[in-house]
Amino acid sequence: MFVLVNLKAYDCDAVAIAEAAAEVATDADARIAVAPQAVDLAAVAETGVETFAQHVSPNGHGSHTGSTLADAVAQYADGTLLNHSERRLRLADIDASIEAAHDAGLETVVCANNPEQIAAVTALGPDAVAVEPPELIGTGVSVASADPDIVEGAVAAAGDVDPSVDVFCGAGISTGDDVLAARDLDARGVLLASGVAKADDPRAALEALVAGL
Amino acid sequence: MFVLVNLKAYDCDAVAIAEAAAEVATDADARIAVAPQAVDLAAVAETGVETFAQHVSPNGHGSHTGSTLADAVAQYADGTLLNHSERRLRLADIDASIEAAHDAGLETVVCANNPEQIAAVTALGPDAVAVEPPELIGTGVSVASADPDIVEGAVAAAGDVDPSVDVFCGAGISTGDDVLAARDLDARGVLLASGVAKADDPRAALEALVAGL
Amino acid sequence: MFVLVNLKAYDCDAVAIAEAAAEVATDADARIAVAPQAVDLAAVAETGVETFAQHVSPNGHGSHTGSTLADAVAQYADGTLLNHSERRLRLADIDASIEAAHDAGLETVVCANNPEQIAAVTALGPDAVAVEPPELIGTGVSVASADPDIVEGAVAAAGDVDPSVDVFCGAGISTGDDVLAARDLDARGVLLASGVAKADDPRAALEALVAGL
Amino acid sequence: MFVLVNLKAYDCDAVAIAEAAAEVATDADARIAVAPQAVDLAAVAETGVETFAQHVSPNGHGSHTGSTLADAVAQYADGTLLNHSERRLRLADIDASIEAAHDAGLETVVCANNPEQIAAVTALGPDAVAVEPPELIGTGVSVASADPDIVEGAVAAAGDVDPSVDVFCGAGISTGDDVLAARDLDARGVLLASGVAKADDPRAALEALVAGL
């Protein structure tokens, strides 16, 4: 199981969380990555934790102001989220961003709302897809518990299109039980945010997440 | 073969073109539809021609200013284009727009750039998809002649995901030979614009398009 | 005072409201306009009521799919809203849309959130600006009562930049008293929506709005 | 005169250019800043050069994925560009981004196309505005030479609204003569990109720019 922690634009200490994540990953022999804002990618990567961007531009080098290029991200990061529900992309831009990310050597995890959209993004050839029903994001109610049909539907939908694409489970993940429930539904990873980034003790939250693996 | 004429925002006489299209369709026993700006849907539909919108909003009724709702379009139109390269949508909005259109009884034709994106939009359940390589739009060079591999790839990609979804062929279609070439590649329709809308004699252009069918 | 009724994408009978508005305007010798969805502009204008679009594109004629051009709107409408809080535009597009609207002979009413933004849009040369604090939209709490400072600030800000530009007052207007309160703050018009469009009796709502004028 | 070098998404060595800019600024006693991609802000600031972001989000801390917050930028940078023609913002977002930037202690330079838009953005209270006619960007033809009326118009328009806001001159600046021409038109700074970022010898390009000051 892959635990991908999206720090969003939370008022948190990205480097401290990254250090904790790096240590918990080593201690538990688990795969944990941290996705900070673009500005913080260098400092987060410096901790040794697996580092993801929250987004990369579909553009290549050129006259683009205010973009975050895959090539620039790849100086520090290992992968990138794409099409998060808070940063929805046009279909053609998801396609181009996946290609730009892969050309730069970045792993791609593309978010979508439901099994139909999961099938759609799977067809674009990412490394993984993450199903996040928008109505559960930030609720603390895990999609794996509240709506297992969506996770199973996403796993089936992605498998029909391309069985080599992993399915992650997002929205409402906050406990170790949520992670195990996701695994039981054949998800290969979880995507979470506030459960770690806004925790009083992010290290304890991370340890709890991977304890059962 | 379905001939779908997108009038875009061209400076043309939408009603005159619609009247010509209605007559040519009847005379040739061909299926021809006209897609004007939203403002012109009522007047175009009045001619009796099959009428498409160029876009519908993913929203339902509510506090949305400046939107074009599927329900409002369905008063006059039979279907709608979605995700044209000049009106690219976010993936989640393509999904919601298809659903809103179908709920309103509209047929849906969703555009995309390449076979991978065709597979992606096919997974969202539209009635048809149209492959339009952006580099050929408006060139007068038909994709069916210049790049038959893309059309064949699109037909194969859509068929793998859902064989009930038709594939149309856009970009550069302007002659009857282009229509026949598209049909020979197993496209079930063509999407064109300037070839009719900017023709000196739109009726003659339409007649030429369907002459070989 | 100008009463501008935005029908948004509400599930209402646009033509019936337009007919009522035309009659109330005549009976009360008041200026009332109705702004339906683009699809309904022709039918609304047919009633004889003053007709506004909810938005027009910054583009001129050309290869633009899914746009609503000022020229197309001007076949039926007298003016247009721009930059409503539900259809926020980029600054350069507000500028271009105002120009396109004026070239087509449309009157322009540009919305903004606060006095600073009112000053900004006034500098672009519209016919009128409408101040709508987003937190009051749809509340039924009138900005003229709840936050008279914002209206006074908007009138002052617009006047400093260009005294020929009228200031309208939006957000929460639903009664005749709200209209009079707006007038007392030197607003030259009101912009409202649900107070008429979702009223059980839109004609009675319109009559009440203009009764005190 | 302030020389602000936008590195856009060019394939250039941001740190090497920053080092050269820091040294040229010191040697010439000139004010030179460098605006890299967000990912590179930390490394560029490390060189000691004055550092600008190319954009900051209108959002504050919270559930925003793929944003670049003013607070995150302010860890490293001294200021930010906003509303560049390659990253046009909605008016309400320019307003909110200026406020977010100022709250974070960042200086703001807001771009616009023409004198009317310059007046509009000046009303929002930035530290400076930059006039960049889109048709001259990247041409190597300086706006100060090709279209001095636009620069004079921008200086006059900004001065009418708020004389404390500086006017910079962008688009086509590449030589020391361009900088002097801009100064002669009462611009207080220049905004340029390819003239330095794509120069064979960026240091020499920078030295030439400030040589006449």
Overview of the structural elements:
Four copies of one chain form a homotetramer. Chain A has 213 residues and is α/β, with parallel strands linked by helices. The first copy, chain A, has one domain: Alpha-Beta Barrel (TIM Barrel), CATH 3.20.20. The first copy, chain A, has ten helices and eight strands. Chain A has an eight-stranded parallel beta barrel with strand order 1-2-3-4-5-6-7-8, surrounded by five helices. In chain A, strand 2 (31-35), helix 2 and strand 3 form a beta-alpha-beta unit. In chain A, helix 8 (176-184) runs parallel beside helix 10. The longest helix of chain A is centred in the first third of the chain and has 15 residues, at 14-28. Chain A is globular. In chain A, 61% of the residues are buried. The mean pLDDT of chain A is 94. The A-D interface holds A 6, 8-11, 37-43, 54-55, 57, 59-69, 71-73, 75-76, 81, 84-87, 137-138, 193-194 and D 6, 8-11, 37-43, 54-55, 57, 59-69, 71-73, 75-76, 81, 84-87, 137-138, 193-194. Chains A, B, C, D: It holds the Pfam family TIM. Chains A, B, C, D: One of its GO terms (biological process) is gluconeogenesis. Chains A, B, C, D: It is an enzyme of class 5 (isomerase). Chains A, B, C, D: Keywords: Cytoplasm, Gluconeogenesis, Glycolysis, Isomerase. Chains A, B, C, D: The active site is at 84 (electrophile), 132 (proton acceptor).
Q: What kind of sheet is the major sheet of chain A?
A: 8 strands, parallel, barrel
> How many distinct domains of chain A?
1
**Class from secondary-structure proportions of chain A:** alpha/beta
Task: State the total count of DSSP E strands of chain A.
Answer: 8
Oligomeric grouping of the chains: homotetramer
Mean pLDDT of chain A equals: 94
| CATH superfamily caption of chain A | Aldolase class I
Query: What's the number of helices of chain A?
Result: 10
Query: Which stretches of chain A are low in confidence, meaning pLDDT under 50 for 5 or more residues running?
Result: none
Assign an overall shape of chain A: globular
Estimated share of beta-strand residues of chain A: 15-25%
